[in-house]
Amino acid sequence: MDKKDQIILQQLEVIRTMTEKNLKNMGSDCWGAPPATPTADHTPPGPEKSGGILDIPEKNAPQQ
Questions:
Q1: 34 closest CA partner among 25, 42, 22
Q2: pLDDT above 80 for 9
Q3: pLDDT by residue (tens digit) across 46-61?
Q4: What is the Rg, in whole angstroms, of the alpha carbon atoms belonging to the chain?
Q5: What is the pLDDT of residue 8?
Q6: Are the C-beta atoms of 28 and 34 separated by less than 8 Å?
């Protein structure tokens, strides 16, 4: 195989790789990214404790 054939094979590989990547991303390009799935170490959001006292969210905090 000569140098010209090697260059052609490299170019074809680059084109194939780019095409595969674009096809994989086509769904999210057309319909948006899929929703994020929670991971095993994900904890649902909730009230946080600080110093043993439950923090009150601002919307439920008493008016001063």
A1: 25
A2: yes
A3: 655 555 555 555 665 5
A4: 26
A5: 96
A6: yes
Structure tokens at 47: 């009230």
* pTM of the complete model: 0.43
The encoded tokens of residue 64 equal 């001063």
Distance CA 20, CA 14 (A): 10
Task: List helix spans (H) across the chain.
Answer: 3-31
Q: Residue written as tokens 């991971």?
A: 39
Largest Cα span, the chain: 83
Residue pointed to by tokens 């994989």: 24
Report helix, strand or coil for 49: strand
Query: Tokens 């969210």, residue?
Result: 57
